[in-house]
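Quick one: structure for this chain?
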Amino acid sequence: MKYLSSRGKYTCDSAAMAIKMGLSPDGGLFVPERIPVLTDEQLQFMAGKDYKERAALVLGEYLNDFSAPEIESCVQAAYGGGKFDHPEVAPLHHLGDKLYVLELWHGPTCAFKDMALQMLPHLLTTSMVKTGEQNQVLILVATSGDTGKAALEGFRDVNGTRIVVFFPEEGVSQVQKLQMLTQEGENVLVAAVKGNFDDAQNGVKAIFSDLKMAEALRTRGFELSSANSINWGRLVPQIIYYISAYLDAARRGAIKPGEPVNVVVPTGNFGNILAAFYARCMGINLKRLICASNANNVLTEFINTGTYDRSRQFHKTISPSMDILISSNLERLLFEMTGRDAGRVSAWMERLKDLGRYTVEEDVRAKIKEIFWADYASDEETRRTIAQIWEKYGYLIDTHTAVGVNVYQKYREAAGDDTPVIIASTASPYKFGGSVSQALIGDKAGQWSEFEALQALEKLTGVPIPPAIKGLEKKAVRFNLSTRQDQMGDILLANL
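Got it. Here's what it folds into:
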């Protein structure tokens, strides 16, 4: 299968080349030349299989230049070996009535990013061999918190790779920051960026588009690639868990095979909900895709009005992984909603770059509104939702999942739709334990350090702190680099 740039000026002849490159030379994102549709026979076959077997089948639909043994090896490396603390990898938890929570945080860093970033290093190193690449691959990542740690853990000491992660200095939780700054491995580097996530992401994009930088890296034996969801190898594993969740819902009798389900996804960069869109395109009956945002509600405004405007106040919230104003993966959706009109997509992206905003035509907006519904939750609503879910179900959720639950409640009230729903739970509550503690304990928790709050939360709820987080504050800090956006390239070269 070939992979096309969303901006129309570049084509890859194979998935391996698209994964190796990460970003198209014309600035666009790679998309498959067609979206495969699963047959009824395939879905029936997968229904009785475990997560790894389902993953192999879905990946095979997109990575048809990979052999079956290569795919099976990548799947086993990602999801085998006890890396995930639940045998189902991504279990579906029934809260009550027709409400289900898809727990995506059972991996080694307690966040949904593990679902893809335990897979990507193996897809990438396999791709490097298949394309005859001799240089080491240099993974460059901008993170709003969870991607950084998950990428560092996924690529740690993987042969033929180096990984450099940039994160906003004051834009992540204390747990997220320490998870990155204490990261082990001989091939890893972490640096803070003065500013917000968009500053870090723009700095990374500038490095990717700098031809002189690319040549300087090649002379040192490195080829650039990305672990952000702009890389197709990062996005395609995320499609799997929506298909798997639907099959699990049917297996439990929550729905009959083929009946509709709604999906709620808390998202900032649009990659996670885009994966649900691709699952829908593959024949899974996901009726409405409900996009949940925090106060940085640029996606809510876009879905409801057709105007994307990044020129707005940036808010630091208690759901920091969604503190994003430039949602890179939206470009892939626009490519599909325009009937794959790369010219229109390119024009919008140029307007976003030059003017900070663009407005899609009514035909595109109408197609998006048929599938997506969007709203947002304030920090106060998020705290209140955490407390409500604990009181009603005895179930502990993090701040991002709470945004999803709150927006779903608004959808139910607005639409009166009682279709069974799956809410993507994107992180362990202990990733953001300070804020979760305040939601349950009150202002007193705000006087504690984040790690004191974790202990209080564990004592109150009886929910154990995950091993990946417990004792984190006692680990040695390995990295103390800090830089401005315009110095990121210099930091990169100075530390290779």
